[in-house]
Amino acid sequence: MSEEKVKKLAKSSTKGIKPSETKKLSVSKTRAKKIKHTYKVKDAENSLLLKLKDGDVVIEMFPEVAPNHVARIKELARAEFYNGLKFHRVIDGFMAQTGCPYGTGTGGTGKKLKAEFNQMPHKRGTVSMARAMDINSGDSQFFICFGDCNWLDGQYTVWGQVTSGMEYVDAIKKGNGSNGEVSEPDEIISLQVIADI
Questions:
Q1: Domain extent for 134
Q2: Element (H, E) at 32
Q3: Domain for residue 24, yes or no?
């Protein structure tokens, strides 16, 4: 092919634009219903779609046992707070923790939640709120259990359960040492309430 027939592409003018600044394409009601149906959830308003590098994870939430935590997680997800946050603490066989805006485990939104300890067990796929020594210090950080962790029962607020895509949670990059700190950690691509898709 001769050079004069080759069309040069201009540099993209959208590079560096934040997702919130881009116009979202509308989805028809029929298409939206089909998309939601593919995730097979009981209640789309109380279910989350967690997009990870390897695939989609569906989390069903428990507003009946942790109403304030579920409401806050949905509020933060709808504000796109979790998008791009790191899995800063990941311990193989135990759990993957995220939700710190600094990526260090030292931050949150500044809005503390009163503990809602419940009878839900910490088992494989359980999603529970991280906290400091103060039981009422949960904020935005949460963790997903890789296996059964019954020693955590009654000590942390369980607010959800992975119902599909646990294999993608298993693939999250693990940390080294007892604290599970991760160098170049994996990130949340996005976290959405399925009813909003």
A1: 31-196
A2: helix 29-38
A3: no
In-domain check, residue 17: no
CA distance from start to end of the chain: 44
* pLDDT tens sequence across 78-133: 999 999 999 999 999 999 999 999 999 999 999 999 999 999 999 999 999 999 99
Q: What is the pTM of this model?
A: 0.83
3-class secondary-structure state, position 162: strand
Identify whether 125 is part of a domain: yes
Radius of gyration (C-alpha) of the chain in whole angstroms = 19
Give the CATH number, domain containing residue 54: 2.40.100.10
Closest CA relative to residue 99, chosen from 125, 121, 77: 77
Q: Nearest Cα to 191, choosing from 93, 75, 105, 92?
A: 75
Residue 116 exposure: Cα atoms within 13 Å on the Cβ side: 20
3 inside domain: no
Residue 45: CA count within 13 A, CB half-sphere: 3
Across the chain, the runs of DSSP E, i.e. the strands, are 47-52, 55-61, 89-91, 95-98, 126-129, 142-145, 158-164, 190-193
d(CA 136, CA 127): 17
β partners of residue 52: 55
Asked whether the beta carbons of 162 and 80 are under 8 A apart, the reply is no
